[in-house]
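Q: What residues go here?
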């Protein structure tokens, strides 16, 4: 049972102040700089951000025939509800964000987990070949 009388009193403190003149992200470069500062510990994301920066600097404007591609895409997606397409796009963006922000430990753990079914199948085959009564 929880004894309320033995709990220490709460120490009052001031509320955090709202920063009205806080810097806002205006351009993509600002966004990349802020994300670089946040995710410096993740080498993969860091390399991606620097590569994107370099590509954006070296990128020359090229014109491609986009009308044919747009017509083909709209024809293929004809009859599919917009809300369904938006849900799919949101899920894809969420997965991409999750993959970009994973740590090296999480990536290694996923790699090991993906190998588990193959290892289990090989162990089962080994015991079946030895005709042991261990496996069903």
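A:
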């Amino acid at each position: 049972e929880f004894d309320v009388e033995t709990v220490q009193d709460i120490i009052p403190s001031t509320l955090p102040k709202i920063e009205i003149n806080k810097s806002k992200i205006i351009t993509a470069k600002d966004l990349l700089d802020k994300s670089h500062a946040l995710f410096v510990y993740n080498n993969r994301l860091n390399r991606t951000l620097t590569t994107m920066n370099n590509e954006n600097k070296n990128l020359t404007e090229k014109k491609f025939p986009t009308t044919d591609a747009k017509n083909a895409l709209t024809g293929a997606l004809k009859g599919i509800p917009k809300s369904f397409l938006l849900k799919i796009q949101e899920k894809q963006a969420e997965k991409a964000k999750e993959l970009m922000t994973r740590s090296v430990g999480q990536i290694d753990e996923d790699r090991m987990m993906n190998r588990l079914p193959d290892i289990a199948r090989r162990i089962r085959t080994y015991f079946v070949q030895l005709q042991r009564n261990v496996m069903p």
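A: Context that may help when evaluating the design: The CA atoms of residues 67 and 110 lie 41 Å apart. The radius of gyration is 27 Å.
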